[in-house]
Write a structure and sequence with these properties.
Layout lengths: L1 H12 L14 E3 L6 E3 L1 E4 L10 H13 L4 E3 L10 H13 L9 E6 L14 H15 L4 E6 L8 H13 L3 E7 L3 H14 L3 E5 L20 H7 L3 E2 L38 H16 L4 H10 L7 E3 L4 H8 L16 H13 L4 H9 L7
Parallel strand pairs: 3-4, 3-10, 4-5, 5-6, 6-7, 7-8, 8-9
Antiparallel strand pairs: 1-2
Helix pairs in contact: 2-3, 3-4, 4-5, 5-6, 8-11, 11-12
Length: 378
């Protein structure tokens, strides 16, 4: 009884009233051809919201995100760790802080596709797995519906029609409002979009991995010479990249090596120490110098760079603290890449060339995309 009373007192002490200015500064973009507007920056709960993390820290991040105009919170059945606990914690936060009609101001998404429970029905893309997983996600989050339900990855052993029909069923049942796909390459994405259109449940959005270091979505060496971004634009499908900071590599965290509290240092993290090579560190430092010339942090520049493409609806960020969240959101204060951002000079030209090497791109292209310094001035 004492523990329950103490928790009730803590919850009351931390009562939350959303900021009345929450929609005044955030930019909202239309998602493809739909009626949905998403914030330019959305919050993903892939990391930092599981059972191994501090609940009150996660709660503070979500509340501050909403106060800054973030209306979209992205989850998946297996987010944690442990798997499922991010949804459980999010559900608790919803019950504590987002009561009444506040649910109607949010876009909440979940996904199914990766391993979740043992046996033949606990992963991939079967109708049984996707719809069972959605039911479990709704119970964990204590919600009647999610706004977007994704197929988290294509299943090479299940007919794509079956997977898309499961998404269609989720929408028609009222347990999801929209259907989405994630991690689908161009051929699978085109076919999935076609099937959903035929079913009468258009694909709302695609969630690919995309950052300055991961740029496969731009690749036009696909059948028909169309990149994934081209396919999405042609079919009126939104795009919301995940891992825009390359698991934290495109931040100031690794400028001097691998800190003890970083993702690369955690045993349960997806970023491995082996990925932080000396070559990669040189690339990160070169890009950081460009960001400094723009009066931005490296993270802010990396996010702004993605958002400069009008085909990008929103960018999914993660955050381990309110301070990190605030820093990332400030990328919206300098979103433009225009001529003259970097003054000419030998030292700046060297920075640009190092950035070109960092991104395996041509010098002129890096000048145009990262600094927007006029190459004719060289």
């Amino acid at each position: 009884m004492a523990n329950r009373s103490n928790q009730q007192n803590l919850d009351k002490k931390m009562e939350y009233t959303p900021s009345t200015e929450r929609y005044s500064k955030m930019r909202y973009n239309r998602c493809g051809w739909s009626g949905v507007l998403l914030p330019a920056i959305s919050l993903g709960l892939w990391h930092n919201f599981g059972s191994v993390d501090d609940f009150e820290t996660g709660r503070s991040i979500i509340r501050r995100a909403f106060d800054r105009g973030i209306t979209h919170f992205d989850l998946a059945n297996n987010y944690g760790p442990a798997a499922g606990t991010a949804e459980e914690n999010f559900g608790k936060i919803m019950k504590l802080d987002f009561t009444g009609n506040l649910r109607d101001e949010l876009i909440i998404s979940s996904k199914a596709g990766y391993y979740m429970w043992p046996g033949p029905y606990g992963e991939w893309g079967s109708r049984k797995y996707l719809l069972s997983s959605l039911d479990q996600s709704l119970k964990r989050m204590q919600l009647d519906y999610v706004d977007i339900f994704y197929s988290h990855r294509p299943d090479p052993e299940t007919p794509l029609e079956e997977t898309m029909m499961a998404l269609d069923t989720a929408v028609r049942s009222g347990k999801a409002l929209y259907a989405g796909i994630s991690n689908y390459k161009v051929p699978e994405a085109k076919r999935a979009i076609e099937i959903l259109k035929q079913l009468g449940t258009p694909c709302l959005i695609h969630q690919p991995k995309y950052s300055m270091f991961e740029r496969w979505v731009e690749d036009t060496s696909q059948p028909g010479n169309h990149s994934l971004l081209d396919v999405l634009e042609q079919n009126g499908v939104g795009c919301i990249p995940f891992s825009p900071l390359a698991q934290g590599m495109l931040t100031n965290k690794y400028l001097k090596g691998i800190p003890a509290d970083s993702r690369a240092a955690k045993s349960h993290g997806f970023l491995k120490m082996s990925e932080i090579t000396e070559e990669r560190l040189l690339q990160i430092r070169a890009l950081n110098e460009i960001a400094e010339q723009r009066n931005q942090s490296l993270a802010q520049m990396a996010l702004a760079w993605l958002l400069k493409d009008k085909r990008i609806t929103s960018v999914l960020i993660g955050a381990s603290s309110v301070a990190q969240l605030e820093d990332n959101l400030d990328c919206l204060e300098n979103p433009l890449f225009t001529v003259g951002r970097i003054a000419p000079g030998r030292s700046n030209i060297k920075r640009l060339k190092r950035a070109a090497i960092a991104l395996s791109g041509k010098f002129e292209a890096v000048v145009r995309h990262y600094s927007s310094f006029d190459p004719h001035q060289l």
